[in-house]
TrEMBL record:
Domain M23ase beta-sheet core: 308-400
Pfam families: Peptidase_M23
Gene source species: Antarcticibacterium flavum
Protein name: Peptidase M23
CDD domains noted in UniProt: M23_peptidase (cd12797)
Keyword Amino-acid biosynthesis listed: no
UniProt keyword Coiled coil, yes or no: yes
UniProt keyword list: Coiled coil, Signal
GO MF, one annotated term: metalloendopeptidase activity
């Protein structure tokens, strides 16, 4: 017997609703799990970089900045695992309701089947069936009775199959429920451990901040000095880009200094680049963003504002910068205060890879997606290996986080 014949319309709607819920939430569950894995990896990366830096870095300010990043990432991890636990709770409740409904259906099926078997037993003898057919008043009536007997036999088989199907479904849901409860227990245990680590980090943070507060003026002066150095680097990169645009335009017969004159091929490349906004790979194989694009309060000394035309990505010593998209190397130049910069042109878009100690390409080279451009320099005093990555459209600065996947 079909399910819709057994269930009233309201119960049928409920059953279909619960059947749809798991499919609807599957993508959400996968996204959350992927994000949880990424955050755990990021915490491991930050912790590894902090451990390495502690061996060389003596700046309390830098240690607090690193600790702040780890705390923020840990807080995000807690949010994601809480969302996962809440989603699992919803699924557990959904499955519990489905199990209750299936049990009611199974009881009803068994009851109907029992009654049917009882009736069948009373008239099961071959003689009774033959007499039933022979007592027919016409051939047509005998034919109809024969069809009825076949239908009744099929009905009995279908009822038995339905019971087996519902029993298997019930067993499967019970197994799923047990697995979901175990998964929730693991997430809760992980959250408990993560919260304990977060609390330890916050205590360390408060201790270091007390030290900073005692010499806040000195630290503020140190930050402003570093900001002046970065501003000078940004200015020099702007000058290099403007000169590069003017030179390439002059070669093509244009007098524009701030906007690339595009050939049809360059226009197509720019359109292709633009269509990949938000999907470009990171310019390093693994790393952590330690300073973001734009104007922002300093993460520790909040009275000081810092600015950046790109993002600073801390990575492992010996790491290389890699092209985020195919294009042509438009410039390879030394930038005072931050080693060398490689600029890759993608039509009228530019990706800039600054603070390279070694460079593997030269001006005019065609590069492909993911190609290594050079080795990122490691600061001898701090031990930090940091890529300064910038993106432009002509002379307009762009936030790399809008272009790079999950930055």
């Amino acid at each position: 017997m079909k399910l819709q014949k057994l269930l009233p319309p309201v119960l049928l709607f409920i059953f279909l609703f619960f059947a749809v819920v798991p499919a609807f939430s599957q993508s959400t569950r996968e996204d959350l799990e992927q994000r949880r894995i990424e955050l755990r990896e990021e915490i491991k990366r930050i912790n590894s970089l902090r451990t390495t830096n502690k061996q060389r870095e003596k700046s309390v300010l830098t240690e607090v900045e690193d600790l702040n990043r780890q705390i923020r990432t840990t807080e995000n991890l807690l949010k994601v695992t809480n969302q996962q636990a809440n989603l699992i709770t919803r699924d557990i409740n959904s499955n519990t309701n489905k199990i209750q409904q299936l049990r009611k259906e199974l009881e009803k099926l068994k009851e109907d089947y029992g009654e049917m078997i009882g009736k069948s037993y009373k008239s099961k003898s071959q003689q009774s069936r033959i007499m039933f057919l022979l007592s027919s008043q016409s051939f047509l009536q005998a034919y109809k009775r024969l069809q009825y007997m076949k239908q009744y036999a099929n009905y009995r088989k279908n009822q038995g199959d339905e019971i087996q199907e519902r029993t298997k479904e019930l067993q499967s849901l019970n197994s799923s429920l047990i697995a979901q409860k175990k998964q929730k227990e693991r997430l809760i245990a992980e959250n408990r451990e993560t919260r304990a680590q977060l609390e330890r980090n916050r205590q360390s943070q408060q201790s270091l901040i007390k030290t900073i507060r005692q010499k806040e003026g000195q630290f503020a002066s140190e930050i402003r000095k570093k900001q002046q150095e970065l501003t000078a680097i940004d200015k020099k990169i702007d000058e290099i880009i403007r000169a590069s645009i003017a030179r390439e335009n002059k070669e093509s017969g244009s007098t524009s200094r701030d906007t690339y004159a595009l050939t049809p091929e360059a226009k197509a490349l720019a359109a292709n680049f633009a269509s990949n906004k938000g999907k470009l790979p990171w310019p390093v194989r693994s790393g952590v963003v330690v300073r973001r694009f734009g104007s922002q309060p300093h993460p520790v000394v909040r009275t000081v504002t810092i600015e950046s035309n790109g993002v600073h990505i801390e990575t492992d010593e010996g790491s290389t910068a890699r092209a985020v998209f195919g294009g042509t190397v438009s410039e390879v130049q030394a930038v005072p205060g931050s080693n060398k910069a490689v600029m890759v042109r993608h039509g009228d878009y530019l990706s800039v890879y600054n603070n390279l100690g070694k460079v593997y390409v030269k001006r005019g080279d065609k590069v492909s997606l993911g190609q290594d451009l050079g080795e990122i320099s490691t600061n001898s005093s701090s031990g930090k290996t940091t890529l300064y990555f910038l993106m432009y459209r002509n002379m307009d600065k762009m936030d790399p986080a809008d272009w790079i996947l999950r930055m």
